[in-house]
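Sequence and structure are no longer studied apart. To make this concrete, we show below a single chain and its fold as tokens.
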Amino acid sequence: MMKYPCANLPPRRRDLTIATAVLCAALGGCGDEGLSPIERFERLPALEDLVTIELGEYVIPIPVEPTSDSPIAATQVQIEFRLYAAVLPENEGTLRSNYERLEGRFRDTVIETCRNTSIEDLLDPTMTTLKTHLADSLKPYIGSAHLERIHIANPQVKRL
């Protein structure tokens, strides 16, 4: 004779246990076409599917406080680059109109973000940290759902 684990529980507790098991099975995705949890996440769009919009050319002087472990001995550096945003085609109009309407705020935000980024991060060849900071600081003007990628073209950091 087969014994059920819930058979000895009081009726209210048994019903709650069964309801919890059914809920877990439903939320767990029974019969989910064999997709792994990783495959269920939405993938980032391919670069070919995005529209690139230029957000200006920047030449930004940045004061540096020299320290003993600083990778650069100058008291001021200058970063030069062209900034681009990549968005889905359906968001291109929104980004272009926001940029045209708020260009001064965009530029001020980019300058402030660069000046608040550490010299080590500015000297990083991939500029990953700067791109992340720029994406975060520009989202209020662009819209968080609209910005897919930030690209910094021809970055140069010069000692002044």
Observations:
- The chain is about 40% helix and 20% strand.
- The two ends are 87 Å apart (CA to CA).
